[in-house]
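User: I'm putting together notes for a lab meeting next week and I want to include a structural view of one of the chains we've been expressing. I don't have a solved structure, so I'd like a prediction I can at least talk through. The sequence is below, exactly as it appears in our construct file.
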Amino acid sequence: MTLGTTERASQVAEPEESPSAPVSLLPDRSVGQKLLEVVDLKTHFYTEEGELRAVDGVSFELGRGKTLALVGESGCGKSVTAYSILRLINPPGKIVGGSIRLHRGVGEEPLEILELREGSKELYEIRGGRAAFIFQEATAALSPVHTIGNQIMEAIRLHQKVTRQGARRLAIEMLGRVGLVDPELCLTQYPHELSGGMRQRAIIAMALCTDPELLIADEPTTALDVTIQAQILALLKQLQKELGMAILLITHDLGVVAQMADEVLVMYLGRVVERGSVRDIMKKPRHPYSLGLLGAMPSLTPVGQRLPSVEGAVPALSDIPDGCPFHPRCAYSKPGQCNTGWPPPLTPLSPRSLPPAGPPESEHSVACWRVREVALERLLQRPVAAPAAGSPEEAGSPAELPAVAAGAPPEASSADTIGAATVPVPIQVERSEIPQPVEPFAILTPEQDAAEAAWFAEGERVSLLPEDERPE
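Assistant: Thanks for the context. Below is the predicted structure for the 472-residue chain, given as structure tokens.
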């Protein structure tokens, strides 16, 4: 397929863009500055079955140059949360409450997205310009009657002052960066002429070509093979470093979360049930749902044992249970406490004890009525060192619990706390009542904790270096 007569004529008629013109970046894209602030967001759908609370009081912040991952099973409200940020919710859905603020620069008032008039110039400058979206379904996101080139070039020219020739060069460059072998040919093709993976890469190129401040990626690598997925993730991290771009990542792949995210929000039935740094969530999860998701990872399951799973399925939004929404599937649920009243609020755990040189930790919060009991029960399930002479032979027996509660080892008392109190004299739990362990996560001493944090930081630094500068 060749370019049409009209397209060729327009390219000849317009002046050539100066190749030396630099691409201007916003001066206030300093890493860590607050970019997006979502407070008590509520998005409901009004159907024949009644009012469905797809997003029910979600709050979070995202800084420039940072990546926040939303994880959870299908139907937990991750995509609806992302669509709500750019006000892409169509009837019968409606954003019924909350605040979505997009911060501009130091000293400037943030922009309240929910107060913008639909169809206003400010809203269109945000969509596709300051904030870009990588949709999960590439076929539905692309126009079937326009070429890939026309769609990408349209996005570029809507948000950047470039000529048609300049937009075409940018489109070719970005298609090449996302791994398409012949980007010039792809520019002239229609979506149905591309494979699923090629369409997904075209969508990613369209989102990245406008140098957005915020990138919302809804399962960006679902349709890609492993090698292309690695290239796309490396490209996102590189552009994030160059542009100070913030990424809101929605994915089911916890391996991608561990590689890309700085912070993690675990969602269930429209609510945030756990929030913390990626290291806290992956190493020391506290909510039973997070424990189930991590335990279901094949890489964490010993060879020859049955792969654990979270029993049951996510209930329909029209049939949300009373109390904690997760209690029908929870192995730690207690009748009379978890199945009545309102859902538990998101409560911060107590500050963690770190050495003076330790890295700053984001706030680790959990929405669970029995977070302390869950932590204590998991302490009984963790393997411990061989008992000394004269001590109880069974590791983790109730005779050992007072020593754990008293602070030996130190990390055991600081990590498994809620509020400002340390773990008191442990609750007596019969071993027959303890659920089968999902996966034994290690308890680290403060020295091991600090060393592990330094190892994570070094790995992050090395991953951003050019390949020829990385150590062997």
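A couple of points you could mention at the meeting. The longest strand covers residues 34-47. DSSP finds 16 helices and twelve strands in the chain.

User: Perfect, that's what I needed.
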